[in-house]
Design goal:
heterodimer; A: alpha/beta; four-stranded parallel sheet; about 35% helix; globular; B: Alpha-Beta Plaits; Alpha-Beta Plaits; eight-stranded mixed sheet; two-stranded antiparallel sheet; 4 helices; 10 strands; binds iron/sulfur cluster
């Protein structure tokens, strides 16, 4: 280990985050490696290590001979200060070598508030922030993850974005890079060739012009690159790589357990949900295979908990059978099973018994809206009676805490809908009174609301986020309505972060200057209240002559050219518009198993039929 | 419950694993190695492991002791190799054996404290350190969770059983035997006292290595 590092580690909080050397971390012989990849997650070790996508790519890349993928996380402020003071450049955890000397630096972008960390990490690596200032072929700076469906605010900093699932395309662009390196191409030549790989979006090869009102006038592809770049998907989940053998951290992380990915995509089609549209179509992993993977992962990791992960785990067709299969293995070993994403209408007695056998934690449901009318409008096909039935089941089974999540400011929301949240919470309380076998322990019902952020590639991509005063008024309305209910706790998100998310999630390239200005003035870790400074962002927007409300609070015209017009998730704009109109008519769309609504995502599958 | 002990070392990258994290790491490692060990009783049973005398984060050691209960079916001599395959880099098991003496008989610890001077040991530093350790008494204030003020006073000298100091070109190496428990002495306090008394000789960096566990007679404790 580097001597300077040895000196600073005793001075910082939780130094085990900065050392590597964990069980299953991959250390390769440098003499037998010709390509080095830095897989960067722009947040802390604890959060980055909990990301399943990164674990998949790490395992997959390190299976390749000659390729060595290492992990890099954002150092916390105390570590950053020490690194800058001692002149330590950002390094890969496995080797300790500076990533500036690597071939490729790949960022995983899951949320907009991590963008300043991307800039900060490039700077800590000793690299110029802007792609145009990095003239050499290496290190190539790329990014993947959900944010890449509108990566425009980061466009000037990143050489190319990788859209969709990375299992196949990652190895394809690494091959191309190797060819470019061996044949001594210029960076421009490499980028032009990369743009030919499906799923790769090279932002510098598109020219963006603006109208006087600030909207995008046109996005013009240069050098014959495609006008739209469609995401990549893995067709066969059962055959696809799964990291059953994966790094087990020596210090605690957020999701410190086996994560078993049941399926990708979601059949539901909630109109606000970007993941629901962006990960279409549904592709399930075979239940037998999942059982094998779960057992293998437990035995290799020593973890005592398996979580069954997906966008909506109770929609997995063989869930009860899978639980039984796993329980045969888990129970004798005191391993617990958990389901993080449960739909409130499918929480059955059957399932409850299986989960409770090993552990009984709190239950979380997300009805999202307080009235049936609004739930229909957002296509959250959840009936009040089903939710109440689920909580009755849970309360009868001895659960005594329920968390309910809602959004305020959804399109078409009225005060009646807001007050409906209070009514629903009260009905949940009465369900407890009616069913709880032991009332002496009391009940905890928590209602949480967030401020709705319209996302690109959803039915609500045209919508305005409601003004902050209006959000605050609705929070107060609900707070007053719940004032007298002693068993119901109400929490609401502070609006400032949601406003910034609303700006960046549908932002354009001009916001790159705002990011850079904010970073220059100290912005980083903006998803952490310790670091987030709203005034700094207001100053950044003002300094760059941009209006945040233009991005957050403006209704878009039906055929406006969106900044995110090049990336495609494979769902047609016409379908999304239709979904928006159905919202205004408070009409639902059936889930993909009941009936196909023709979104367009079927074209990703051989035969063109979704069979999730 | 704790009929067995593991003797292990902790070095390199593993030095930064905290005491609590290390216990968790061992619980998982036993499971990964397929070595069944005793569990605690009660509502939420978990694998029982206990590490004697927590080592400060950043220190290295070649004499850590972990107590646990090996269940039937695994021979003691296969444990080290199987565990080593399941542990993170820097944690190495040397021995697995039946515990014969209680941990309370472990009264002293031998540490090597290395004072690092990048530009060479300054003249007088070695003498100063020797002078400090030769005093009749050396009272320092240290943080305390129990005391109301948050601080208590301790005299280090009665807790130092023996010492030698050797000056090299750019390091001063103190080989010390310190009280291990009730109360024990963390060698960090020796560094702090030295830097406070002789700020002109404050080293660039100090590293701590735990070399041996000893009993009251100065014999190796296992
Ligand atoms: S094509 Fe039809 S079934 Fe497939 S994801 Fe779209 S709406 Fe659902």
């Amino acid at each position: 280990m580097n001597r300077t590092l040895e000196r600073i580690l005793p001075k910082v909080q939780k130094p085990a985050r900065y050392t590597g050397g964990e069980y299953n971390a991959v250390v390769k012989d440098k003499d037998r490696v010709d390509t080095r990849f830095a897989l960067c997650f722009p947040d802390t070790y604890e959060i980055g290590m909990s990301n399943l996508g990164c674990r998949i790519l790490y395992g997959l890349m390190n299976e390749q001979e000659g390729l060595w993928c290492e992990r890099v996380y954002a150092p916390w402020g105390d570590m950053e200060a020490e690194m800058r003071k001692e002149g330590i450049l950002l390094y890969g955890l496995e080797s300790g070598d500076p990533i500036a000397d690597f071939d490729i630096i790949g960022f995983s972008l899951g949320y907009e508030m991590a963008y300043t960390n991307v800039l900060n990490m490039l700077d800590l690596a000793g690299l110029p922030l802007r792609a145009a200032d990095r003239k050499d072929l290496a290190p190539l700076v790329v990014a993947g993850g959900t944010c890449c469906y509108n990566p425009e605010p980061l466009a000037p900093f990143v050489d190319f974005f990788v859209l969709g699932e990375g299992e196949e395309v990652t190895l394809e662009y690494i091959e191309l890079y190797k060819k470019a390196r061996d044949e001594e191409w210029t960076k421009a030549e490499l980028l032009r060739e990369a743009a030919k790989i499906p799923g790769i979006y090279v932002p510098s090869l598109y020219d963006v012009t603006y109208n006087v009102d600030g909207t995008v006038a046109a996005i013009t592809p240069l050098d014959g690159v495609p006008a739209t770049v469609t995401k990549r998907v893995v067709e066969d989940m059962t055959q696809s790589y799964f990291p059953a053998k994966t790094i087990i951290p020596s210090t605690e992380i957020v999701h410190d357990r086996v994560m078993l990915e049941l399926f990708r995509g979601c059949i539901r089609g909630c109109r606000f949900c970007q993941a629901g549209y962006a990960y279409r179509p549904v592709r399930c992993r075979d239940a037998k295979k999942l059982g094998e993977l779960g057992r293998e992962a437990c035995l290799d990791s020593g973890y005592q908990e398996i979580t069954l992960s997906s966008l909506s785990s109770t929609d997995y067709p063989g869930l009860v059978d899978l639980c039984d299969d796993l329980l045969d293995f888990c129970q004798p070993r005191n391993i617990s099973l958990s389901l993080p994403s449960m739909r409130a209408d499918t929480f059955s007695m059957n399932l409850m018994e299986r989960l409770q056998k090993v552990r009984k934690g709190g239950l979380t449901f997300a009805p999202e809206a307080g009235t049936q009318r609004l739930r229909d409008a957002i296509n959250k096909n959840l009936k009040e009676e089903d939710l109440l039935q689920s909580v009755r089941t849970a309360f009868s089974g001895g659960w005594n805490g329920v968390k309910l999540y809602f959004m305020l400011g959804l399109p078409t929301e009225t005060d009646e809908d807001v007050l409906g949240i209070a009514d629903l919470a009260r009905k949940v309380y009465f369900a407890w009174k009616e069913c709880a076998p032991n009332k002496a322990r009391g009940v905890r019902i928590t209602v949480s609301t967030s401020w709705f952020v319209p996302k690109p590639h959803t039915a609500f991509q045209w919508e305005a986020q409601i003004p902050v005063e209006e959000y605050q008024r609705r929070v107060n309305l609900l707070r007053d309505a719940l004032k007298r209910d002693k068993s119901i706790t109400y929490n609401w998100h502070d609006p400032e972060t949601s406003y910034m998310e609303a700006i960046f999630s549908r932002g354009d390239r001009r916001l790159a200057d705002v990011l850079e200005w904010a970073w220059e003035h100290g912005a980083k870790f903006d998803s952490w209240s310790e670091y987030f400074d709203f005034q700094r962002w207001m100053d950044a927007l003002a300094a760059c002559g941009l209006d945040g409300d233009f991005y957050a609070h403006r209704v878009r015209e039906k055929d406006e050219v969106f900044p995110w017009s090049v990336p495609s998730v494979g769902v047609s704009r016409e379908f999304l518009w239709r979904e928006r109109e159905l919202c205004y008519a408070s009409q639902t769309t059936p889930d993909c198993r009941t009936r196909c609504s023709g979104c367009g995502a079927n074209k990703f599958l051989e035969g063109g039929v979704c069979n999730g | 419950m704790a009929e067995h002990r593991l003797l292990f070392s902790k070095s390199g990258r593993a030095r930064y694993i905290s005491h609590l994290d290390l216990m968790r790491t061992f619980q998982r490692a036993f499971f990964r190695a397929g070595i069944p060990i005793k569990h605690t009783e009660g509502f939420n049973p978990h694998a029982f492991v206990s590490i004697a005398l927590p080592l400060s984060v950043g220190y290295s050691s070649e004499c850590e002791l972990l107590e646990f209960g090996l269940l039937d079916g695994v021979r003691e001599e296969e444990v080290p190799a199987r565990m080593n395959a399941a542990l993170p880099e820097g944690i190495v098991i040397h021995e697995c054996y039946k515990a014969l003496r209680p941990i309370k008989a472990l009264t002293h610890l031998n540490y090597i404290i290395t004072f690092d001077y990048e530009t060479g040991v300054p003249d007088g530093a070695e003498t100063a350190l020797k002078e400090l350790l030769s005093r009749e008494s050396l009272v320092v204030t240290k943080k305390s969770k129990k005391a109301k003020s948050g601080f208590t006073e301790v005299d280090l000298i009665p807790l130092i059983k023996s010492w030698t100091v050797e000056g090299r070109r750019d390091t001063l190496v103190a080989d010390v035997v310190l009280a291990a428990q009730n109360p024990g002495l963390n060698p960090e306090l020796i560094r702090a006292a030295f830097c406070e008394e002789f700020p002109q000789f404050a080293p660039g960096f100090v590293s701590f290595h735990r070399r041996e566990t000893l009993d009251g007679d100065g014999k190796v404790f296992r």
